[in-house]
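Curious: can you check?
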Amino acid sequence: MLSAVLPLVFHLSLVSVRAQTYSATYLPSNAPVQSEQGQTGTNQCGTSSNQTSQCQNAYINSVDDFCVFAPPEPGPGSVIGNTERIEVSWCIKPGYGTRLIPDGTITGAHFVQTPDYVQVTGFGDLTKINIPPRDAGGELDPHGADGNGNPIGGLVFSSAFTSPGQFQQLHEWTNFVSSSEFCFRGCKDGPRAPKLCQHIYDIMGCAWNMPGDYGSGFNQCAGDTGEPMGVYGSSTFHQGDGRTPPPHPAPATSSCTTVSTIGNSISISGAGPTNSSSSSVARSTTSSTNSGGSSSVSRTSSGTGPTGSSNAAPSASLPGAGVSFSIFAVILSAFVF
């Protein structure tokens, strides 16, 4: 009986492993009009940027080619905690069918590419993209309280791990944004992605979740993969525990390229290009290496980064957890019967 069951167990184990392996679901070119039920925006965005776009596709490619999710409308009621389900994409670079971040909004941005994720951190006057003044902000992620994401249907793409000009969907990502600070990490699909792009620390803010450079200026670096947020050796911190541990040190960076400015010629009033032409930037390469110092202090009033998100989501799990449980039941029944 056991010899008959073992091949089944082996086969089902392979199914379980495969179920936990990510594969590309969408590309910008084949995304549906809406990828989730209840979505207010769209994933079919075209290439013509405009300041009323309802596009909910974001990109993380480089220091002068990234997006953040932010409210579609201005006003005191548009705090992130109120609008997390309907945020739209605001990007530096035209050509994605999104809204464009006006020139001068971002006064510091620092892009890091590691073997496992890409990350951009920085600050500026994000009231220019409809975030109310003094809003401590919150977290956007692909899960939310119901699995549909905040914003619902938000998709993230990157060309960082592919050939130039070729995109892939990053299924695990986390984006914090407030009126003065932002951070966005997209993880390469794989078994480490859920932990490296953990989404359960929604009130801990940027500096704690994504240690890095939050100073002025613009640069792009290679970097080491950091420790998963909340994991300290064999212990895992859970939001709400009695003592909050410090953030991990910022991982070491190298091969940094300095960029003098980022932009797209869109003014605060919204006048500017609406086609797919790219903005130009001046670059200079430096050979400095950061040995991995501590992260900078958050710029929000609480000192812990953007807060106010109302979706303390359940712990992340790899896709296929339900499949694994079903497999266990099948194997058990095979032994019993």
Remarks:
- The longest helix spans residues 2-19.
- The longest strand covers residues 106-113.
- Confidence is low (pLDDT under 50) at residues 1-22, 270-289, 293-337.
